[in-house]
Amino acid sequence: MSTRNTKIFITLALFFAFFSVSWRVQAEDLVFPTVADLDVGSLIKTQDSSTVYYFAGDEHRYIFPDENTYFTWYDDFSNIEIISDEEMASIPVGGVVTYYPQFGNDGLSTRLLKLAYDNTVYVPIGYGMLIPIDDEEAAASLFGENWSDYVDILPDVFAVNYQFLTTSIDESDSFIEPYDYSLDEDLQTGSVVGVMMYSDPLRFAVSDESVDCGEDYCAYNIAEVKQGGSLKFVNYAEDGLTIRDENNLWTTGSMDLQDIRIVDIDLEPGTYYFYADEDDSMVGVLQVVE
């Protein structure tokens, strides 16, 4: 058995030995900084680019593909924060923002959409879904006689971001009543779990170290991530630290001191291990759950 596999085997044994302890100990969550020190919900751009992004709860950036999309969510550009090119590059791209959905039957809360080559008019209903309106009479009944003034042409290049439903709506249909609907909800963002790296000894910490760390193991180096979620590594240890999965399924790349890296976890449910290239006794446990 290789040295690395032996260390991982020992870590697994210690994990089960400490598991009951970790449940008995009251541990406060560590406070993790966000990528580029941004608040969730921030609107961001760089100085030399007109592209605006939404910084979501999963610490990814989501692009507004055009002004039409942006103005279904916001009234103006007054709250956009300018960040550096380096900070922007450190934030992974999560996807594309789609139109704000229609709520209620007391007038339009968004704008309608159609393709350039098709007369079918669609209503955005959330999560990137578009539902067709049965006919012009239904459109007038639902949204008023001037409904056609609120139709935008959806460019073909953006159409791939939407799901076109086949069942149409008519004047007898109603929309869900308005509520505090967020862009994070619309994007269906996943979860992000933080992992800090410390030195003396070199180690991982997912939550507060209320149980003493051993030479190669800390009781709180176990990260539980939902399938499709992300890990956020915060380097408080040393320059040039690289973290990777034991089977090289993912890596952070080289991290300088105080760097933050987001790693998307697209793995089947199960238990995995990660380590530092610079010291493979620094082993962490990743549990992927449904």
Your description of this structure?
Strand 1 (43-46) and strand 2 form a beta hairpin. The protein has 290 residues and is α/β, with parallel strands linked by helices. The chain is built from 6 helices and 19 strands. It has helices spanning 3-24, 67-73, 85-89, 136-143, 156-159, 183-187; strands at 43-46, 53-55, 61-63, 80-83, 93-96, 112-115, 121-126, 129-132, 151-154, 163-164, 192-198, 203-205, 222-226, 230-235, 241-245, 251-255, 260-264, 270-276, 279-289. It starts with a helix and ends with a strand.
Short description:
The protein is α/β, with parallel strands linked by helices and 290 residues long. The chain has 6 helices and 19 strands.
Q: What would you call the structural class?
A: alpha/beta
Question: Which percent band covers the strand fraction?
Answer: 25-35%
Q: What's the arrangement of strands in the largest beta sheet?
A: 4-1-2-3-5
Order of helices and strands: HEEEHEHEEEEHEHEHEEEEEEEEE
Q: Mean pLDDT, rounded to whole units? A: 87
The appropriate CATH architecture of the largest domain is: Sandwich
Residue share in helix = 10-25%
Distance between the termini: 31 Å
Top CATH class of the largest domain: Mainly Beta
Biggest sheet layout = 5 strands, mixed
| C-alpha geometry | elongated
Q: Compute the gyration radius: what is it?
A: 24 Å
The CATH topology of the largest domain corresponds to: Immunoglobulin-like
Question: How many strands in all?
Answer: 19
Give the oligomer, counting copies of the same chain as homo and different chains as hetero. Answer: single chain
